[in-house]
Amino acid sequence: MLETRQLTVRFGGHVAVNAVSCAFRPGTLTAIVGPNGAGKTTYFNLISGQLKASSGEVFLNGNSLAGMTPSARTRAGLGRAFQLTNLFPNLSVLENVRLAVQAARAGAHLRGLNLWSIWSDHKALTSLAEEVLEAVAMNDKRRTPVAGLPHGDQRKLEVALLMALEPDVFMFDEPTAGMSADEAPVILNLIRKLKDDKRKTILLVEHKMDVVRELADRIIVLHNGALVADGDPAEVIASPMVQEAYLGVAPVQPSLPPRWGRSEKP
Ligand SMILES: Nc1ncnc2c1ncn2[C@@H]1O[C@H](COP(=O)(O)OP(=O)(O)OP(=O)(O)O)[C@@H](O)[C@H]1O
Ligand SMILES: [Mg+2]
């Protein structure tokens, strides 16, 4: 189980995440919603260790992650979508996924210098990487250098790499943002499939309420860094706060995610 206790970060005088206490259980997909600037990405950064908390703690299966680097947290089972800046731009898509698969298995390979086992590992890793690419419908791009991928493919690759790590906890931050209408369903199907594995804990930051409504077992709402609602999707969606923020009377701006407390209300 993943848990944050009183997790807080301040940037100067601004409290971006404010004493958020929340537990996330395996077999549950929790959607994290809230307006732009609510602190959703910052909350993820605190959990994954990209940002250091001002106070409060993160626990995974009862153990505090305080002081652990992001890569140590990844090894502990926390899966955050890769930033493509962490990839090898001149290596192919397949090579990058294979390296991620290999990283996921690091430690299981201390068999000494046995060329046969290195070769059979290489083949096993390659076929695993191919499976992962198949899952995101990118096998046809396997030989393309990562640097040459269009934006939608880069986002799909981020999800592919996360899958390859086989984490216990999946953290998706707007996974379909910037994707075309035919790319987004690939990712949503994948998340749907992940939900079948009841050992996995899934956190999903998502602005699209139709996606949230369909996938979430639970919704938490962040507002000004604080956790202001937590519960059953139907109840949370029906709450006046979410109604106003996402389905309210404010004019729809198709190219922008919904905002809380728009100033241009009619
Ligand atoms: N490294 C940082 N330094 C200073 N301020 C930051 C930093 N990271 C985030 N913030 C601020 O913290 C607040 C929360 O930002 P965050 O990106 O977490 O919001 P969000 O809920 O993910 O929004 P969005 O829906 O737009 O992605 C914002 O006011 C942001 O400007
Ligand atoms: Mg964000």
Kindly summarize this structure in a few lines:
The protein has 266 residues and is α/β, with parallel strands linked by helices. The protein contains 9 helices and 10 strands. The protein folds into 2 domains: 1-77 and 167-184 and 194-266, P-loop containing nucleotide triphosphate hydrolases (Rossmann fold, 3-Layer(aba) Sandwich); 87-166, no CATH class.
List keywords for this structure.
10 strands; binds magnesium ion; 2 domains; globular; six-stranded mixed β-sheet; four-stranded antiparallel β-sheet; 266 residues; Rossmann fold; alpha/beta; binds adenosine-5'-triphosphate
Could you characterize the architecture of this molecule?
It is a single chain. The protein is of the alpha/beta class and 266 residues long. A 6-stranded mixed beta sheet has the order 6-7-8-3-9-10, sandwiched between helices. The protein is 35% helix and 22% strand. The protein has 2 domains: 1-77 and 167-184 and 194-266, Rossmann fold; 87-166, no CATH class. It is built from 9 helices and 10 strands. Adenosine-5'-triphosphate (ATP) is lined by residues 11, 16, 34, 36-42.
Spell out the CATH superfamily of the largest domain.
P-loop containing nucleotide triphosphate hydrolases
CATH architecture term of the largest domain:
3-Layer(aba) Sandwich
Cα Rg: 19 Å
| Side-by-side strand order of the widest sheet | 6-7-8-3-9-10
User: What top-tier CATH class of the largest domain fits best?
Assistant: Alpha Beta
Terminal CA distance: 44 Å
What is the average of the pLDDT values? 85
What structural class should be given to the helix and strand makeup?
Answer: alpha/beta
The multimeric state of the shown protein is single chain
Helix content: 25-40%
